[in-house]
Amino acid sequence: MKERFLLFFLIFGLIWSVNSQTKEVHVKWIDDGIKLDGQLNEAAWSEALPATDFWQHFPTDSLQATYQTEIRMLYDAKYLYVGIIVYAPGKDYVVPSLRRDFRARGNDNISLMFDTFNDGNNAFFFGTNPEGVQREALIAGGGSTGTGGFNTSWDVKWQNASSMGDDYYISEMRIPMFSFKFREGETKWRFNAYRFDTQSNEWSTWMNIPQNQVIFNLAFMGDMIFEKPLGKSKTPVAVIPYVAGNVTKDFDANSTATDASFGGDAKIPFGNSMNLDLTVNPDFSQVEADELVVNLTRFEVLLPERRQFFIDNGDLFADFGNSRASNPFFSRRIGIAEDLEGDNIANQIIAGVRLSGKLNTNLRLGVLNIQTAEDKENEIPTNNNTVIALQQKVFSRSNIGFIFVNRQVTKSTDFIEEAEEFNRVIGLDYNLLSEDNKWVGKFYVHKSFTPESGDQDLSSGAFLEYNSRYWKFNLGGRYVGEDFQADLGFVQRNDILQVDPVATRIFYPTDSKINTHTIEVRGSSTWAPELGLQHTDAFVDFEYQIQFKNQNQIEMALNSRYTYLLEDFDPTGSDEGEPLPAFSDYYYTKFDFTFESDRRKPFSFTARTDLGQFFNGNRYSLTTDFRLRLQPFFTASFRSSVNYIDLPDPYPTETIWFVGPRMEFTFSKNVFWSTFIQFNSQDEDFSINSRLQWRFRPLSDLFLVYNDNYKTTPFGPSTRAVILKFTYWINI
User: Does this model's pTM top 0.85?
Assistant: First the structure.
């Protein structure tokens, strides 16, 4: 009995030590380059010791992966070479599309993360799948799910080739060293890799990551050791010109206009760690149409930034304050303004410059300046927009950040009042990231400066989270003064004092079809300080989530809410009946149920229903998302929602519809055609966005875009446009 007891502890100790030890992979120097053919038959590959012994992350995190992965790395003065052998049960891989920057979930892929400054905050990300389709991203905030946590809009030139065997596939990568930012003379980067294997239904990682942490969290990384110190990065100057032309038909004005434009971007390196971005008359025609949103709240909806100029080091500018409540800088404010009727319209960007990167190992700097054009017809002045951001690393992974934001009218006009001439914000943030990521937090205070403003111009907040295997607790609070103003930021509402506690318990059953089930209680209370701490909002949510081992998921929630209206409000947005009056309050409760099926299947879907009270009436809604895959050339989705809102007379009763089918053909890795159709009855909008893209060289494209917009009451065309755009990436 004693022998068995000792043997158990020896085995447990061995597993714990292997599981907790920092791993190393050695990167071998080579004098001759590697032929990129997806074969790994050069002698140098056999001499490089692999990173292997991957651990499961799903369905468990205590066993090694059933089918292993081997990663070998070589380098010379110009390139990092990565050779990957991914072992699998067979060839029945899931590859939904040949389009770049695919999403990982529900398909086979391998992804690599390189923390080149060893700070646990930022990393460069490269991934591929059995067909050799590429994806790359920037990871920020330690791999959190915040504003810039995982950004796939970043693009860089690199090459890879793939091949398949009976029970494996090979990926061979050649990544230019100038794709990374790093210190000259460095001998070590932090590294991790993760893999999605649809056939064995496993997710695995090189460094073991607890299931309660996201799979790309940068707290859990090993070391890659270079045989020779890294030299100076010989990053080329990149020039990216474009030429665009469009024909637009305005049916309301019964006019047709043609327009041609040209401009471009440039990327100029400063040493190994800084980059200067320039833009002149930028054009964003290649950006896909934003998804329409049914908004049943009183507040503005936040949409993500996808324009390339703002992406690199975007977290340095964007991750200040609270992204959903009070953020001093939100880049989508630049290039968009309001017309005389309060609708958003494009506002031309004349030119912009941005310097960002690492000044040294622990200090990051970002400086941005953009000039926008005057629009006299819509009484929009010309503005100069400046942002300065600093971020100093402290302790193991935490940092202190400073931001200064300035919007300044640069030309006097009759339609601008003195109170609108400028807006400035300064702020200080502390971001807490513990070494093991059990403790995460944010503490900030910001102050705005505007002519004729009152003295309630502060915004501050605090958030602290404890995340263990079985329990998660977090507590957040924020204050936004009545006079706080951030013209280039996102402020959901002013004059609030808010507290948000959350408690979560995770269960890991054994010998069950359920992988985890989670109970969560979250609450929130909001007061208006300028109204004598009037209680304006509160909610308590009880949620129960089930994740099955076959990747189906169920979520049920009971929500109880309180709302005190400070202004008249029509929850339907229809203007058909009387709005709910200001200074009235409501208690209401609802139940929601969500089911998501296994995305590995050719057909999958998500369905959600909300049933219950809504203000002084009732709301019944059904939201669905059906997904079809005919791999690897065709994918389609059909997203829809219907909301029936029934309020007593004289208040409105309305049925709000949203329908959004999307189809995408990937004829090859270089030719894509996508069509996105949207109908939103709340906005009385029906639109078609169809885009043909030919990537004739790496990061060089020809786009043909068709946009069609219709009014729905009565139904008829509003505007129609055809856009042709040519971009070319030139390295000098």
Answer: yes
